[in-house]
Each structure stands twice: as C-alpha cells, then as structure tokens.
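seq/struct pair 1
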Amino acid sequence: MSASENKVILGRLGAVYGIKGWLKVQAYTDYAENIFDYGAWLIGREQSWQEANIVEWRRHNKGLIVKLADVDVREKAQLLTGMEIAVLESQLPELADDEYYWRDLVGMAVVNTKGYNMGAVKSLMETGSNDVLVVKANANDAFGKSERLIPFIESQMVQSVDKANRVITVDWEADF
C-alpha cells in the first residue's frame, strides 16, 4: 500500500465488545456491511496509520462488530477505539460515467442554466428521498445568499456534471 496515495475514510472503530478483542464498527458506507468488502483496512488518526486485517465480522443487534488480527484481548481493542477506518482510493470500485462519489462533487462549481455562478459544493446530505447539494455561495452573491440547498435530482434540477472542468449545471433560480 502506497503511503502517498489518498485514503478514503469509510468508518470508525467504536467501543470494545466483550473480552476477546471485538470492536463495534460505525460504517459510513451506503450499506453498512459494504465496509467489509475492501479486504485489509487502514486504521488510525491523522498521519498515523497501520494496516489491519479482518479475521471475522458479524451483525450484532442493529450494528456491526469486527475481530481484527492480533487483537485478542479487551485491552488491545481499547487502544483502537475511536480510530478511523480507511482504504486507499485505488481500492474503491470504478463507477459508471453517470455515477459519482460524494467526495468527487465537493468543491465543484455550481452554475445555473442562465450562467449564474451559484458558488461551490461544500458538502452533500442525504434526505431519504434524494441527496442534496449544500452550495456555499460566493462572497459577493447578488442575492445575499450564503448557502443554497439544491436537490441532486439528475435530468430535473441537475442538468449535467462535468468532471473534467469540475462544474455542475443546475436548473435552479439564483434567488431561491
């Protein structure tokens, strides 16, 4: 695993479960179990990362628990609580041209169909029915907006996503 390659955070190790080194897992993936599809994880904080091999995992109540290699007692597991779970960017599956990882949309410029620059994508949020672009407006926004929430509904609100130029074109009024 290349140290210079970008890491993608997929979750976090939670509290210790039991006395044999099991840990609870908080997954950030669409389907929680998908966090186990990547083989070895990188676990750590900030600039300190180590490889962790999954020995076993299972559902427990409404959550997930994991047993990592060389973590066989509660005390060792306690040292890992709160650590982030990551994989290398190259481990992520390739997406079709019309699919996007949220992290790829963040920072893209948002322009409406009339050519008005609405700002840049600050983040996205999930609402249940559809994802929503959280767009931080430009400092000199003509309509005094600081932020806009635009539903990410392709062919309706979102007209196009230009990955190469990092621009999202939306059918959305600038004063809304």
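seq/struct pair 2
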Amino acid sequence: AKRPAAGGESDAADASGADDGSGPAAGTSLWRMRTTVADTPGSLAALCTVLARLDVDILTLQTHPLADGTVDEFLLRAPADLSARTLAHEVAAAGGRDTWTERADAHDLVDTPTRVLGLATRTALDAAELPLALRQLLGRCTLHSVPAVSITGRPTGEQAPVEGVLEETVMRLRDPHGGTLVVERPYLPFTPTEFARARALVELDARLGPRLPRGRDVLTLPEGNEITVRRADQRDLAAARAMHDRCSARTLGLRYHGPVGDADRYLDHLLSPRFGRTLAVQTASGRLVALGHLLWDGDETEVALMVEDDWQRRGIGSELLGRLVAMAEEAGCDSVYAVTQSSNTGMVAAMRALRLPLDYQIEEGTLVITARLASAHRPAGRTRPHEGSRPAER
C-alpha cells in the first residue's frame, strides 16, 4: 500500500471497496481510522452516530488527549462497499478533522495493552528487537539510529535529552548506548501517548542492558568439520577483529569497499543491536570464522556477509544468508538487498540460490541485488545502499 498523505485517506485503501478477506465476516472490511475532535461533551457521540448510520461497527477505540482536542483512533468493521473517501467525508461532517484511514487486517484485532506487552517481552529477550518493536508500535515509520560518535571517531552532535523530544512527525529518543534514536512518520503526527509508549520501551531496553537469545545450532560441513551458528553483538568485538587480522586484503576489500586498514572501524557499528542482527560462525575450538549481518537501513534492510579465507567455498555463506533472510521475513521485511561487486561470484550465487525474485542495479561501480521476500505484501520499491554501505563477501 502507498503511504497515505497527511490529513487524508490511504490511496491504496480508497482504490477498492471490495472485501479483501481481511475482515472477519463476508462483505465487510477492517479499517484503522484516526481523527481529531474537539474536547467537548458530545463530540465523540456525534462521531459514533455517523458511524452507526453508515453501518460501521466500532471494534476498538483509543483516545489521545492533546492541548487543542482529542485524537480518537478506531478499529472499524465496515461494509465492503464503503470507500475511505466516503468515510472521511462523513467523519468530517460530524466534526472530525485531520482524518486518516487505512485498511487493517486480523492482526489489528489484538487490543493495545496485549500488543504492547508482547513487544516489551520481545525487547526484553533480545536487544536487537527494539527498532522492530518501535516500528510495530507506531505503524509505518522510519527509524534511524544516529551514534554520538561517527565510525571515524568524530562527534556527530546527536544526543537527545534524557526525556526525549517530540516534534509532531519526528521523535528523538536518547539511546542508552550513546546517540539518538530518530523516529519519523511524515504522514501522521505522533501523539504524546505514542511518545510515552515509545520512551517506555527504550527505558526498558536501557535497564536490561546487553542481551542476546541463547540459542545456537551446531552444523556439520560436507568435509566433516563442525561449526556453531549463534547470535553475536559488541561483546564479540575482539574475536571479530582477530578474524579481520586473518583475512586477506582481497576479502576485506570485497566486504568493505574501502581502505583495508579502516575495516576494524566498522565492526563496533555492525555488531550493535541498534543497527540490526548479527550471526557468527565459530569452529569447534571457538574461533570466529564468519559474520552475517541483517542491517536496518531506515525502512529498508541490508544483508552482508564475510567469511574468513580458509573457510570460504564450504557453504557457510549460503547458510548464513538463508538464516538472515528467514529473520528478515519473520521481522516483516518486504525485501533485502546486498551490495557487492560483479566479480564477487560467491555472493551473487548465494543470492540466486535463495530462489526469490531478484532485481539487479549497478550504482557507482557496485552491484546492488535486491530480493523480494515471500512475506512482502506490496510491490518492492527501488532500493539503494545507505551512505557508507559496504559490499558483502561469501
């Protein structure tokens, strides 16, 4: 679905009034609607009267008090032939303003306290879940983690106050690990209630400190060697740097697309749960020999791999890539992209082996391969590498 414009209805939602199967009953559709009404007695009653006249059933209602009114957020079951434009027009006639609507599905039937508790539980188990939890809490939004210090060691000037900052369609939350979490939703202003919920999730993350799921898988390679695949974070920084030291200049160059001597600078960023999830491969002796990264790039997702020279061409890269893509699908991502060079035949082959629709783009001498995931619900848009993106190595 296209992103709806501020103060209007979703283009995709208005395109068809037919039942798309998202509603629980035949001949009906589920909608999410948000509108602002005056904070006076009877304003909500007038709105509900209009909805009843349209044969619209109110399934859930949340109120977000503001200084100059109240934002009412509804989950509605409406007749299938009721368009978003008609719904918004009737709501406006009843006193609603800045009305926004979009199609909903069965997942929206979960009440808000239950959904928030579920997101808190996921965040408590895995620090890398915080960016995803914020996205699911706030709807379609873009989240950027801006460190206080750049990869090259220079201060970025980004450090939000402890209590955070709310500026209509942008909120800035102080990252306890340093820097700022910037959340943007241009099509719909955030309410103080949403800001408080987001801040509570960030505070929970800060109190719990570094944490990772404990699961690990032991696999046997074709030649008989056993490897362990597990999650990794910044506590693996020393082992990752040692792996860098054992890698050839070609391997480092293919992975980072820059001066080989700068490779170590990126590791702290790549291993941070703020920027995504990392999988590590270690040998039976405990030596780390490969890393795979799933990186949250705004509202896009990048996959990147590096395998130590002596362990390449054994299927490790393909194994990591398959797991990263599965994690992306579980997180609800529509697509993933890899940035590499056409000469990196291992990464190109691993992407093809996913058996997913692929798009190839050449940008400034690098090859960007985008894979549309099975979980995608809308056509994948063009993807571009974010600034400082580095190509992957199988």
